[in-house]
Amino acid sequence: MIDPLKRLGMLVLAALVFVLGVQTASAENTLEKILSAKKIRVAVDVANPPFGILDKNGQPDGSDVAVARQLAKDLGTEIEFVQVPSTGRIPALLAGRADVTIASISVTTDRAKAVMYCNPNGALSITIFAPQSVKIKTPSDLVGKRVGITRATLEEATVPKMAPEGTKIVWFDDLASTVQALLSGQVDAAAMTAFAEKTVADANPSKQLENKLLVTTAFYGPIVRQNDFELRQWINTWLFINTQNGTLTTIYKKYTGVDLPPLPTF
Amino acid sequence: MHYAFHFNVVWDHWRELAQGAWLTIRLSALAMVIGLVVATTCAYAKTTGPSAVRWIVAAYVEVIRNTPFLVQIFIVFFSLPALGISLDANEAALAAMVVNFGAYGTEILRSGIDAISHGQIDAAKALGLTRLQTFRHVVLFPALKIVFPALASQFILLMLASSVVSAISAVELTAITNSLQSTTFRPFEFYFVAAGLYLVMALGFRAVLGGIYWLVFARRGRI
Question: Which of A71, B50, B126, B203 is the most buried (most CB within 10 A)?
Answer without folding.
Answer: A71
